[in-house]
Amino acid sequence: MNWLRLRRLWRPAPLKRHYDTVIIGGGVHGLATAYYLNRDFGITDVAILESQYIGFGGSGRNTAIVRANQRTAENVRLYEEGLRLWAVLTDELDFNLMFFNCGNLSLGHSEASVGAFRMLAGTHNFLGVKSELLDPQQCAEVIPGLDISDRPRFPIQAGLYHPPGGIVRHDAVVWGLAKGASARGAHIHQGCEVRGIETDGGRVTGVRTSLGDIGCNRLGIMAGGYSTAIAAMVGIELPIHPLTIQAMVTHPLKPFLHHVFSSNGYHVYANQTLKGEIATGAHMDPQVNYTTDATAYYLKHQAEALVELMPALRGVRFMRIWAGLADMTPDMAPIMEGELGWDGLYLDAGWGYFGFKSGPVAGKYMAEYMASGERPEMLKAFQLKRFLENRYSGETAAVMKYGHWD
Amino acid sequence: MGMGDRDGAGVVADRAGPPEGRLPGGPTCRVDFSRPLDFTFLGRPVTGFAGDTVASALYAAGVRIFGRSLKYHRPRGLYSMDGESSNTLMRIDGVPNECAETTELRAGMSVRAQNVRGDPRRDVFGFLDAFDRMMPAGFYYRVFHRPRRAWPIFQNGLRRMAGTGVLDPVGFGDGGRAESGVRAERYLNADVAVIGGGAGGMAAALAAAESGLRVCLFERRGWLGGHLDWRTRDFDGVALHRRGEALAARLLEARSRSPEIVKVFTSSPVTGVWGENLVTGFTVGTGDDPFRECHWECRAETVVVAAGCMDRPLVFNQNDRPGVMQVGAAWRLARTYAVRPGGVAVFSVGDDLGLEAAADLAELGVEIRAVADAREVGRQDAELVAALEERGIPVLSGWAASRAMGRGQVKACELRPLNGTGSRRFRCDLLVANAGMQPRIGVLASVGARLAYCSHTHGYRPIELPPGVFLAGSMTGLRDPRSIEASGRLAGHGAVTCCLDGAQERAGKAAATGGREAEATDRHGAASVATARRDADALPGPVAGCGIRHGPGIGRGAKAFVDLDEDGTYKNVVESARQGFDVPELAKRFGGFGLGPGQYRVAGQNLAMIMAEMRGDPVEAATPTTMRPPLAPPSLATVAGPNHDVHKRTPLHGELAGLGAIFRRAGAWERARHFSEDRACRDEIRNVRRNVGILDSSPLGKFRIFGPDALEALQRVYISDMRGARRGRCKYSAMCNDMGQLVDDGLVVREGENDYYLTTSSGRAGPTVEWFRYHTRYDGWDYNLVNLTDVLGSLNIAGPNARKVLDRVTDSDVSNGGFPYLGCRRITIGDGVEARCLRLGFVGELSFELHVPSSYCRYVWDLLIEAGADFGIRPFGLEAQYCLRAEKGHVIIGAESEARVTLTDIGMGWLWDREDTASQKVGAPALRACEKQPGRMKLVGFRVDGSGRGRNGRDGGGPGSGSPRDGAVVVDGGEIVGYVCTTRRSEALGWRYGMALVREGVVGLGGRLLIRQEESPGRPEICTATVVPPPFYDPEGGKPRS
Question: How many Å lie between the alpha carbon of A218 and the closest alpha carbon of chain B?
């Protein structure tokens, strides 16, 4: 009956004038970093600064899909460890993150996609992460109701089924990590907007905020779509573009969709939340911007895609649409960097579509990076300098255009 | 007739007397007792009438429990008659979550309750209601996860308990027919879009229409009139509903005078107002409409928001009991649908409309035991109080409902004073309760207005409206019908002035640039706005509202519902706050307030007010949670609409189809992929290699660039020295992006002085002009680039017999001497079709590509097919072309190139003019930087060891064949070092070849690749291949030159 005792999940804390470590951004990345800084390295003097309320940004606006079916080995390894953390954190935080290990089915609609899926399956299975190439009939066995006929404009040609993935209750991750970080001494300051970064002799020394100046020895920028603006405060120009991405849910229904499905051809991904809504998201708005305005276009776009892929959804109604910011790099892989020209300054950003699913594992390794000053092996693939060297991550197969890169 | 042509104010006349259980149909009744409609509820026959909604018919038939609630499985009944909660979401004709309160009754409907098996009066999960103490806010985050193994079991249980409607993903239940039906879509433009067809909206529309501007008015109900529609109270000697009808008649008259100018849409809820005043919504088809539902989008210059008010729910103990309903629901049941809402009623209200409703229901014969009014003594309309007291109905000012009693439905209720002690109990079967009215602020949030709590009206009002948005009607707190109409006129005139100002500004700009004189538009200036404002100001302003946050005597353990959809109680708000979720936005997510089908509409304002109280903040600090569209829930089928498949077809589509082509979408185009069921296309490939094939390559990008700086532009975007482009000769080159990645390849031919013809890959036909312009944007160069892709079709004949075929259709010299490899000639085909003819070798054979005007393609095609008959000409498709070029080692962008490789990595570095730095070639710096980088991926050719035919003699590759297929990975030790881009078994070669991207240094020429594919976990297949240089077929390149 422990759950009947109601306690604050995170403690209100006084704003100190100085912290050992300050983290900008009260989302899953920032909170996880704070949590692991203490859990693994005993650093308790940590503040998390959040301009709105925790989970306001991408952490609370995603479709909660988690998976490890990325394209390149370095990404698969990272996300695979990330998948394993949901159950571990549920235990450690004593907070049910509600990991629903339902598996993900990616749908392919072209001959080329079959080869692409085979490459993914080969990569995943070689690394010990399960993925299976399916034919259309098998796809319909995994998800009854998919239209595998020739009626859709892009008929389903293949599927890639990835059993280790699923969905997590995204808000629970934010709150659970806040609980864990706070219990381990971190101060969470909501409504605290960072307005400047103080430096002295090549070192970061603190931040100027809407609640006053705060000194620090180490500073982590983990502010999702807003990271570019914050990095610019110390003159760092990041190859990250903030783009609006939208998602929506339907009225709740009894469970009938037992897996996540996604389709590159239709630019749609969908899953049924634990509450029964069909949550679905699309690709990003093409224009670089900082707004979180939803648009009528995407409501229509999603409806068109979903009724073709799963005609039973025709009678289902949209209930809510929202938008968030995604921080897109040119190669769709993140930047986790401690060599930014300022001692003590660290960056964890550029996650694009993948900020939520990577949160805890990124926090774990960023904590290691920040505590030790040594770049962990796992993060070697995610350095900023790869863009200067034209050594792009292979996370996108095609030469993609997100934002005005060209 | 269209949706705009319905009689919006028509009241059905000449009815027969009321059937059993119905009230006499008065002047505001919209039900036609002469037209009974039979339908079923839980399989049992029920009869309603034309004009009924599903809910009104069920209620009239005695149904009180419509469904069961989400968490506690509490019985739920009719609540708002506007579909503001999930109480009356039902399964109608197999479609889940249909709103019974607003769905028009049709004969033969099958209606079922939700979140319950069978009859909602009995629910096996009803016991859960007793366990609410075990389920504090957010309890599911704190239980079920220990031990770890138990979670999947709990999780499945939770999933089954969650959700309400049932959807059959395969059979669609009995709903296949219901959610089918025609979906239409309509795109509108308006100067003034008016949201809301009440008095304010209609007055605004009329004011705008009188100025001759295009008006679209959208009303979610099936008729105009707003809250005047069902009110019979006398005002200035006229019944209020008559006043509404008169306004509607004027509006409809204006419409019939100029139907293109004035459009009125009823049964048309607005789903959102998006950027740049894009108003969207849908129209539910009735009667004559040729559609079941129609999605529409209206781009409006200005928007008048006159969405009206809805009841603010009163939060008190057991306020969700069937029999507790909002004022509007009880009133409209009686007045609009002639349904007796109850026998014995108690009212607990917060404004004069509530008193008016009580008096009106008393007039209709409902026995009213008491009316509590949360406002203090003296704030009520004395006339209404007198009318009630005349009937012996006590009016308790400063009192409100504190508790509803009764298990399945209300049997009694308790009223208490808000300040002070004491209580009174009344037996009743109907408790009509609200806390006054709240404006429908969702539309305001949707247009981007900033909102603040108004301590006078006790509702939200905009602090600032975006430009072009105007507000009218009862949303502003106005209640006097004259004030409401005046506010509408003011908003209408404001919108008109805004439109005209905008037009004038544009005209002024046109005058400044074009030299034309601006046409002054001063028919309708500030004067009319000033007049309208004076009129409005002379009339009564916003009335004081009621600030009650919840009923009296609410305890911490109270089961008083703030949110009906997700069973969010007052107690849950307290619990959320105690756990740190003490601002509405966090509590909303943690406790689930306003996340269900009713969204913010029921819970929003109360949650904010209660939260402010808990924090000890003044009520003005109550900040609403974010209100998100859609403002009304549209079905996916309706939003998707007809869902036209917009794509391009080549001029030869019909010819190809006639020859059995199997088409696939490729970008914007539908293209012939195969000409038989053999996906390996062996016959097509063989015929090109042995005889001659013909390919419809019309989607190929085709451009002309000319002008003094055309060559400069070419030098910038192409990676080669384009001065080498000569007359009569194809120059092959490529374009890179700034990262040095290959983005396009094609041919450039010089056709004249500063005049070039160029081709791009099909996928780049769209972006090429922008690409050129973008990369020369700072240079001020003078050149013109014309996209000829759709103007010119392209036919490719390839194979040893290609020349023989071509020779038969042209008199031009096509001999090897006169028209050598990579030549480009203007030739005349047949009766005089001018063609550009390019001699190419993409598929590795003698090949001619004819670019002819699209309109001549079929003629040329027929000529070639006829001429080629003797030489074995047959069409081939994209897959055959894909294989043929792969045998030659020719790269296709996206197949053998990707984000990790540059032009040089894929063996095309020879195209790069590395000496040229002056042209600032796009991608050159990156190529230079990457050139000597170690460890990059490189494109290599390979020959699969063994026959490549596989163990079973199958040559398709894949599971069990022992042969790799596209996408197999290349491994080295414990590492993945690359992957197979393309691999096929070549009939011409007799072995399996392929191209792979492999990390440099892993293997050299002649070395071994270890290729591994594992399509199913645990079933790896491994083979080896030897690295050989492409091209595999005809390595000397003699064939295309022959």
Answer: 28
